[in-house]
Amino acid sequence: MTERSAHANLRGKRALLIGLGLHEGGSGVVRFLVREGADVTVTDRRDAAALDGAIRSLDGLPVTYRLGGHEGIRVRDYDLVVRNPAVPADAPLVMGARAAGVPVEMEMTLFLSACPAPVIGVTGTKGKTTTALWIGDILKQWKPETVVAGNMGISSLDALPAITPQTPVVLELSSFQLEATGERGLSPQIAVITNLSPDHLDRYLDFDTYAEAKWAIARHQTAADTLILPAGTGDDARGDQGLAFLAARAKEARAHVVPFGALPPVAGYPPGSWWIEDADTLLWADSNRSYPLGRGSDLALPGTHNRINACAAAAAALAYGAPVDAVRAGLRAFHGVSHRYEDLGTIHGVRFINDTAATAPAAAVAALATTPGPVILLAGGSDKGLDFTALADAMLGARAIILFDGRVPTPLAAMLAARGYAGPLIGPVRGMADAVAQATALAQPGDTVLLSPGAASFGVFQNEFDRGDQFRAAVERWRQEAGAR
Which in 34, 47, 175, 220 has the greatest CB count within 10 A? Predict the structure, then answer.
């Protein structure tokens, strides 16, 4: 346990948190500010009833709440403003703070400024949670005190008091969380970008704006740092939008760049972390030699995309200094993440997969490619301004499709009709109980009921995790009903 004073100047300062939110990030910020001696006010558009869980987690702390809107809040009355990642940089209160010369922070700028240990940061459009937790599991084989936090409902700031300079720290970082790190000139010592494809275009002007927000993870690295990027970010980007962006930015990177990805068997492997599919081998290569890290078939997670996630995780752990034996053990030991292609089991021959974290079309395409046999797909929701063409094409192979409604409904129903989809197409449904009832009525032994929406949850569910929890509960109810027959 260490004492630190990186934010001792907060003592007695008036701090305003804009957006408490429903997850631990906002609550963690409040606890941190109170710990540092600040006078804390929280404002949120939601009312106290909607924020009940978060408020109860702060019970007993000296916090002033201004809920149900921001009326009467004058940012010039505060010495510091902290914005929740869900609050955009151009929100009126944030813009007002900047105009008044009031410093604007976020959870991750507070954490990265105060953390005494080197940090591994992981971002990307798909696979960032899986990869971050996989890195954590590998490092825990070596150092059990490893901290894993960030964009997964775990407050990084709550972990600060237990972090020493020797504690491995792994953060999953969303584009929203990374926005302010770029402003503050902060990047983790080891940065991983799993991939980039269009997402959150309801928040960002275009793909390049979104990608630039992600690139903040590497923008301020130094020559002593490590940047782990998907293979194909050199001159062979071949028109892929995400790879082309990373290829251009990689030429500007000051950090040591380590590639990862899939390769065919060759006589000599270039430096990097590789999945050699024909040899069923995960392989690490540096400038001197190469050596295997395990067999792909020994991994608990299915799919080529997870073999590639494993390559990224291994590269990050090795760059941090983890022993090869710990890397091999951690790769085998990892069994996946709740809500990300989570196998809920088989009931009367029907398999259920919870992939609610697939909130972008590309993630749902990957899930469909991974799932063998006939699929009854639960998809759709709220459109974030994304291109659903590839997902609509991939959905044509599903035996049946059930579509969710959303705040801004996706165009999937019209796209499937235009493509002549021949299977049952049901929806839009308004709730999970209806969706699962429809799916189980259609399901036959050998089918998989796959929740992989490819879209946001807004309009029907609180968030994607609420959507997944409701799916899990509905499946469990059906399991009990089926067992009673």
Answer: 175
Does 235 have pLDDT greater than 70? no
pLDDT in tens, 415-472: 999 999 999 999 999 799 999 999 999 999 999 999 999 999 988 898 899 999 999 9
CA distance 229 to 227: 6
* Per-residue pLDDT at 5: 39
Co-location of 173 and 321 in the same domain: yes
pLDDT of residue 237: 41
CB atoms within 10 A of CB 47: 12
How many C-alpha atoms does 362 have within 13 Å on its Cβ side?
A: 15
**pLDDT (mean) for 150-163:** 89
Residues 96 and 118 placed together within one structural domain of the fold = no
| Upstream peptide bond of 428 is cis (omega within 30 degrees of 0) | yes
Task: Measure the CA angle with vertex 245, ends 242 and 251; round to 5°.
Answer: 135
pLDDT, averaged across the chain: 92
The phi and psi torsions of 408 (rounded to 5 degrees) equal -125, 95
If asked whether residues 277 and 359 sit together in one domain, one would say no
The 10s digit of each residue's pLDDT in 35-66 is 999 999 999 999 999 999 999 999 999 999 99
Under 8 Å between Cβ of 22 and 54: yes
Residue numbers of the domain that contains 274: 108-333
Per the structure, the count of domains in the chain is 3
Is the per-residue pLDDT at 131 higher than 80?
A: yes
Q: Are 329 and 370 in a shared domain?
A: no
